[in-house]
Amino acid sequence: MSTITHEQLRELYEAMILEHNRHPRHYPENPPGADHHAHGFNPLCNDEIEVHLRIEDGVIEAAGFEGAGCAVSVASASMMMEAIQGKRVDEVIELFQRVHAMLAEDGPAEGVGKLRVLAGVKEFPMRVKCATLAWHTLLAALENRQETVTTEDAVPYCPQPMERTPA
């Protein structure tokens, strides 16, 4: 087995991001009978995603996503959809944990299969949240959470400027 160089991994990352952004899999798709849904939003770059799952007997039988975002966000969601189809929910949760560790915690790129190419996003720290948005939204869908998933801390309320009254 040959070892992939850093440069080869970067080229593969760029090619996969472009391919999945141009031709996202399971998009725009809300599978018939989907019974788990979640909404995610990244306010820094306006990535927005809806994840839809049909789960039968603990297995993800169908998955799709809708939304819009940057190339990294769309590609990550597309690759995620391919990776979770037909997997048991517990396997998907484990995959989420490994992918999150790889992207956000500088963990190893092991046990993630083809998703390993997403490790290239770490070279662009501002894009890590773009890559993880779909994954956090997936977890929320699995848990049937109703609140919008966000990659940022809560933003304090910012009132509009008051109108000045003529003196």
What this model shows, in words?
The chain has four helices and four strands. It is α+β, with helices and mostly antiparallel strands and 167 residues long. The chain has one domain: Sufe protein. Chain: A, CATH 3.90.1010. A four-stranded mixed sheet has the order 3-2-1-4, with helices on one face. A hairpin with a 2-residue loop joins strand 2 (47-56) and strand 3. Helix 1 (6-22) crosses helix 2 (71-84) and helix 3 (89-104) runs antiparallel to helix 4. Mean pLDDT is 85; it is low at 155-165.
Question: What is the general shape?
Answer: globular
Q: Would you report the number of β strands?
A: 4
- Order of strands, main sheet, comes to 3-2-1-4
* Secondary-structure class: alpha+beta
Strand content: 15-25%
- The end-to-end distance, rounded to whole angstroms, is 79 Å
What fraction, in percent, of the residue positions are helical? 25-40%
| Total of DSSP H or I helical runs spanning 4+ residues | 4
Order of helices and strands: HEEEHHHE
CATH architectural grouping? Alpha-Beta Complex
